[in-house]
Structure prediction request, 784 residues.
Amino acid sequence: MAIPLGDWVLALDGSTLPDKALIGGKAWSIARMGALGLRVPPAFVITTRACAHYLHEGSEPASLAREIAAGIAWLEQQTGRRFGAGPSPLLVSVRSGAPISMPGMMDTVLNLGITDETEAQLAAECGDAGFARDTHRRFLDLYAHIVLKSEAALAVDGHPADWRNAIAAGAGESVPDAVEEQLARAVHAVFESWNSRRARRYREHHDIPHDLGTAVAVQAMVFGNMDENSGTGVLFSRNPLSGEPTPYGEYLPRAQGEDIVSGKHTPQPLEALRTHLPDVHQELLTAASLLEDAGGDVQDIEFTLEKGILYLLQTRAAKRAPRAAVKIAVDMVAEGKIDPSEALARVSSEQIRTLLSPQLASGAAQGAEIVARGEAASPGVGTGVVVLDSDEVERRAANGEAVVLARATTSPNDLHGMIAARAILTEQGGSTSHAAVVGRALGRPCVVGCGAGSLGALAGETVTVDGQNGIVYRGALDVVTPHENDDAALRQIAAWAAHQSTVLVTTAQSNGASIRFDENIEQTEALIAALEPGATVEGALFANDDKAVRAVIAAGAATIVTSPALPALLAAAQAAGRE
Amino acid sequence: MIGTVMSPSHLVLHGLAIKKHADAGDIAGLIGLAADDTARRLDDAVASGRAVQVNGKYLLTPLARIALESDYSRHYADIREDADFFAAYEAFERINVQLKALITDWQTMDVGGQRVANDHSNSAHDAKVIDRLGELHERADAILGKLAAGLPRLDYYRRNLLVALEKAEDGAIEWVSDAKIESYHTLWFELHEDLLRIVGRERAE
Prediction:
């Protein structure tokens, strides 16, 4: 057991791994990295039992404040820093952590422990007054928003006293002066978030008991901007874009984690760290390999270097591009890390559809004239005649013509035109504009922000829109549709899926009777309800809709005919794998 | 509540301007009229050339659209003078910026430093965005309450945004932004369009 500091608080010293039901998911993840021998910023956890007590009794356990103080003392001893005091102030993060992750739980409060006094000390310690001031602002902003539940707009170039006044005016109460009281209030806010409307609804919908409670993880903050041997970064245990089995990452020297997210600074490839601090680089790669083995999946690891010492902040299964998802799943079976059934669970039909969607033929863009460029808002390739009016797009598309909608901007008035178009172009707007959002929702290639007056002259011309790269070419460029049999990794997925699936999924038209769905798409539900056991069903519907695949299997269909076959085959295999 | 409101026959046309290709039931819900009353008025609009009907779905004719747009300043003259309503509208515009960024995070995700389409293969990412949507909704709901205090029919959006959110929270993730159903984003956009017409503003990208 981690070190108990009483009845309600545990110091996570990495000695053992306590039960997730007691310490919640966040603390469990910290403790697990510690138990693997990896260095994490010191942390303690207030258990789910303390939350249950608070919610049941309406007040926290009598000894909780004393135990939290012992937890803070433990963090001070581990870090050599002091909470609410100098010369090296200890700042902490406060996180909710239910045993099962659910919506509606409290967000993380960072930088708790910063005051006017500790801000000055932090500024002196890291030699960056601007950073210390911003750390102070971020704390007040998070505290106002999360603990006081108040909308506060704190000017970036403001002063802490003004920020506090603004919060007090908006929230009707002040941020407490004492850091211990701030911490106690944040802990209560976590406890109370357990009973938020959304959390309660989620538990009811998923049959999770209301009396489990959430834990609170309190962790020392580490600083990636202390000196030349400090920095922050992310490491993937494999390349999440290509799937290549080599670590991939970014490193930003003299920076905090939010600097990477904000995009204000351009990170360096991980190689920069290898050159600068080879031992740390090696330690990081070893940790990545250890975490991948322990997690059984590619890991996305956040880390910070403080004065040359590596701390791992968080690890989780990595998001990955479709190509990488397929390669990683196939590779990990070959490496004996997962079995084929697990590999099938890690690739989605949607990813297969993306890989099999039309793309520009190799070399097709070479020498082609670029007639417009903008922000790539929705991927895919679409060719058609440029039309400037949504009603006209709809009319011409209904007559079988391939058209591309081009507008200064789009609004809900253009929805019918966007649905009918092969691609969407706008002159104004960025990645959150209406055209971008709706284009992605519809799966239409979309390039936005091509520039005022850039599209009108293209009316009536045939263009090819490359939504992945934000380029519009003159003319109809060669487009190829990749075939599922042309790729070794996809063939492997198909073979495993065919083995696991309880039904036959094929592109070959049947000789016998088949129930054809495409001609009767409005009657889909009635057709499914009328299916007889052993039936053959046929239609493009099944290549595009996993739910339809599951529904016909549940209704007794034995054969599904569709093209391409692999998306439906994978959905069928996943349905069988879940049983 | 504030004085001038649209007459039922104008409201039906307004509903058609907000919800394109909608049937009588959808329009009735949006404008808060009974379904049979709405259907009758829609048929009247078709008969008088202000709307066309295709397969049970209705569309405004171009002239009716222009006439409708020029009439908003008259119908909503009082509410455009209502400081509380206008303050709530401005708060909506601010939170709208956050909603658009959130929907972008729903549709795309960062993979190794690159923005790629979210193929919904990472359930942790999706759960996090839906959690953020719920948090945003709670703040938006307070604003919508103030808007509906000025114009009660706007309560339609308040109720149905919550319905869409709860479907998404329960695992039917298409209710976040699918453009072909009354998803959270579809309703939000309709609400935005409605508000722009009420206050007489143009959409800014």
